[in-house]
Amino acid sequence: MIEIGKYLEQEKAKIDRALAERMPRSAPAAVVDAMRYSLEAGGKRLRPILALAVAETLGAEDESIIDVACALEYIHTYSLIHDDLPAMDNSDLRRGKPACHRVYGEAVAILAGDALLTLAFETIACYGSRAGREKRAIRITGELAGAAGVEGMIGGQVLDLEAEGAALDAAQVDKIAIMKTGALLRAAVVCGAIAANASEKQIKVLNAYASRIGPAFQIIDDLLDYESTTAELGKPAGADQILSKATYPALLGSEEARRRAEALYIDAVSALDKLDRPSGLLKELANKMIYRTR
To answer: What residue segments make up the domains of the chain, in order of their start?
Structure first.
């Protein structure tokens, strides 16, 4: 039986150490401090943990997979810094602390986000410089760039901005969730599989799992924004309503939104039944993602 709480603590500590070790040493202090501030502000490290969990599930023992995990966290943290900017969600809090731009100023926050994004691909390049990993690194680079770019996270953010105050249908809200949140979560799973030298059949199964947990995660995020306090979330609660965001609770109501998240969760763990490896860890992670309180 997997003790998921202990596993998450252990993996988070491993990732935190790796992130600290890989911070630039000779760059201008102002931007490095802002990068470090946002990386160390907290967070669940969900995306890198997913990548490591997939590699563990597939029996991979290559310690360099931590590089792929760090790259995922760099991209995620960059997106949060930019999300909080006045031109975007205009949020003063992130993970219970003042947002990066409130501490370091808007210009440095923008540059810190840019620096984390480019550091992600530098890290993958270093991973791929080792013999035997070149092809995997190229494929991981493509997955990450696609997930973070205009057909993934950035495209979803644009749709999210355009949807403020608009009346959307379920398909449109699904598209925003799949692109804005789901794309990077899916990439975490797929990149972990690629780094573990998974077969195409294994990648297909894991992709089916990941493609469902991403939208489910976003639904729960929307519900928490409606139902939790700022202290519980570590960021301003009710922000989606203030900005008239297109969310699942706004469209469907809380009960139906939760039912949809649970249906996606069931589909995700069912997909893993086709994996030719023990999948208890990935099922437990999906459960933790959907039945969370922050």
So the answer is: 4-290
